[in-house]
Structure to design on (79 residues):
């Protein structure tokens, strides 16, 4: 089910992690998913009852972001 958010609201929202805008409605591969996705880092924030939940704890991190976070904690992977 597609979400509908006011265009003026979307124009002022930015990713709380990296402050990039715009946020894209949906997720990669699923434009009807109830999420707003950062166009830069790929984090996906849920939209519940028409309200964007822009909290880092609620975000689904992009695979690249999860890899980078793991490297920060454990060091780079050696090949």
């Amino acid at each position: 089910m597609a979400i509908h958010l006011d265009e003026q609201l979307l124009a002022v929202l930015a990713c709380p992690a990296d402050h990039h805008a715009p946020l894209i409605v949906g997720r990669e591969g699923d434009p009807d998913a109830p999420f707003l996705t950062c166009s830069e880092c790929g984090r996906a924030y849920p939209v519940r009852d028409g309200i964007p939940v822009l909290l880092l704890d609620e975000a689904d991190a992009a695979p690249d972001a999860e890899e980078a976070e793991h490297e920060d904690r454990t060091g780079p992977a050696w090949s």
Q: What stands out?
A: Strands lie at 23-25, 35-38, 44-48, 51-52. The chain has a mean pLDDT of 85. Helices lie at 7-12, 63-74.
